[in-house]
Amino acid sequence: FSRQLADERPPTSIWTDSKTDSEPPDGDAKSLNALGVGAPISLSDTGYFGWRGDGARQAHYLLCDAGAIGPDYLPGHAHGDIFSFELSLNGQRVITDNGVYNYKLSAERDYCRSTAAHNTVEIEDGDQCEFWGVFRVGRRGRPLDVTYKAHESGFHLTGWHDGYRHLPGRPTHRRDFTWDAAGVLLIRDTVDASKSVRCTSRLHFDPCCKLNISSSNAVQVVYPVGRFDIAIPTPGNGRFSQSESDSFPKMGLRLRRPCISLTWQSDEGPAGWCISTLPIDSFDVAHGAVISGRT
Fold first, then answer.
1. Fewer CB near the terminus (10 Å): N or C of the chain?
2. Spatial CA neighbour of 215 closest among 233, 189, 235, 237
3. pTM tops 0.85, yes or no
4. How would you classify the pairing of strands 48-52 and 39-43?
5. Phi, psi at 211, each rounded to 5°
6. CA distance 105 to 269
7. How far is the C-alpha of 95 from the C-alpha of 259, rounded, in Å?
């Protein structure tokens, strides 16, 4: 597993308390390189699913976290990252995890573990799990009904988690990923609750990315070897915003990076993103996207 994440096709993904210069054990290299490229990734025991394109450095690579935060007996390196993801396009990391800065009681340690630091949905400004200290975890969210279905040119992944059920209204978060290997990712987020709750979905970009906001619901992202578009339909009175966030690709190294957020109330309906290397003709969360003239 770790070798697959560190393979040079594409660049390293970083999850939980890992960093870009981590080296996988040799034993992992043998078994996991056999998975090959141009193929779906289904590592159900860990909860990692995705797609690994072919073409060496031209590859698109998507990895989604739909697993438990860690083993119940040792969750100290866990982060609040259920249904987060990392995306590389043409061999370049573009939407990324935050990494780890230190193992001390610090604001950086708290932030690294928080749900807000990841590419997923935060509800009522809280975390999916109860973190304290440097490595302690109490109440924790669990992914449920996770289903991964791959086909020759992509996959669909869906599931929900109960990490916020302790809140008033007992909200649950469901996320649907739909990936096309041409470089198109659709995400649909549904938060069900008996009372309206505030939801925030974030995308954290690699520091190499430059964002151009073309309208209130469209962003163009330029990176060293290309560009891609993001369509953001805002439900009800939902609000889209741009900011910056911290990235810690190596211990002790802090970089600033672009971040976009979509905030809405759960009773306003589902929200989502359309991320595409191809022109986006239209996108709405209920009916999907039209990309370059096809649905």
1. C
2. 233
3. yes
4. antiparallel
5. -105, 135
6. 38
7. 9
Beta bridge partners of 155: 150, 179
Given this model, what pLDDT does residue 9 score? Answer: 45
The pLDDT value given to residue 18: 54
> For 135, what's the count of Cα atoms within 13 Å in the CB-facing half-sphere?
10
The residue whose two tokens read 């990895």 is 63
Indicate the residue type of 117.
A
Whether 104 and 139 have beta carbons less than 8 Å apart is answered as: no
Task: Pull the structure tokens for residue 142.
Answer: 């669990």
The answer to whether residue 98 scores a pLDDT higher than 80 is yes
The Cα–Cα gap between 179 and 173 comes to 20
